[in-house]
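A reminder from the course coordinator: this example appears on the midterm review sheet, so study it carefully.

Given structure:
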């Protein structure tokens, strides 16, 4: 699952990112709202961890914008703030926040609240993921590229689904291996599957980019 963190304090942002990535989530963080809004147009996350005190639009403004936009209105949003009065919490919740965490906070509690909120998300029985000419329909477990059906093995399918769920985001090799194969895997296993998947996607396999010494990402641009 993909989580967006919007936090201008680098130490807190790094702490939140590290804890959530260690818990198995894909994380993308932002120190201000411009890049966050741009990323929302590319890929909507499964949850947003949102600081209130931000440069530019503050967190409550971002929250209001999200709840007023039909495409984003159902995304779970957890506010994080040093404002700890009951009035502050009530204001955030009234604007549509799903939870409110006060700074300083326990990292374990933060991760626990994120997990609890994600467990409450209804499972979509007809998930369709698309990127350019690649289309994956999870209800029928079918994949097409340029309109042609692509036959994939179970692992290839799960690998492509992971890329399509987080386009333009760099996925680290260890995270991919843990998510798809568990601990019983090697880097060689991933490299072979990437090469095979690219081949099966034919001309669209070029969208799977190698990020040297880090991992891979699904992106149209070089």
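Designed residues:
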């Amino acid at each position: 699952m993909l989580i967006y963190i919007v936090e201008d304090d680098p130490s807190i942002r790094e702490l939140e990112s590290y804890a959530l990535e260690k818990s198995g989530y894909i994380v993308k963080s932002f120190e201000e709202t411009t890049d966050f809004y741009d990323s929302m147009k590319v890929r909507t996350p499964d949850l947003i961890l949102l600081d209130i005190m931000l440069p530019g639009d503050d967190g409550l403004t971002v929250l209001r914008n999200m709840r007023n936009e039909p495409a984003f209105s159902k995304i779970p949003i957890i506010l994080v703030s040093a404002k700890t009065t009951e009035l502050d919490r009530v204001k955030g919740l009234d604007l549509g926040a799903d939870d409110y965490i006060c700074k300083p906070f326990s990292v374990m509690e933060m991760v626990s609240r994120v997990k609890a909120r994600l467990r409450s998300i209804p499972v979509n029985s007809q998930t369709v993921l698309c990127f350019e000419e690649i289309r994956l329909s999870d209800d029928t477990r079918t994949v097409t590229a340029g309109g042609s059906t692509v036959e994939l093995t179970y692992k290839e399918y799960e690998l492509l689904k992971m890329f399509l769920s987080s386009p333009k985001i760099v996925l680290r090799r260890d995270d991919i291996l843990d998510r798809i194969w568990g601990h019983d895997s090697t880097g060689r296993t991933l490299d072979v599957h990437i090469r095979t998947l690219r081949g099966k996607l034919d001309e669209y396999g070029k969208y799977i980019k190698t990020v040297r010494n880090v991992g891979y990402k699904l992106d149209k641009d070089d």
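The mean pLDDT is 87. The longest helix spans residues 187-200.
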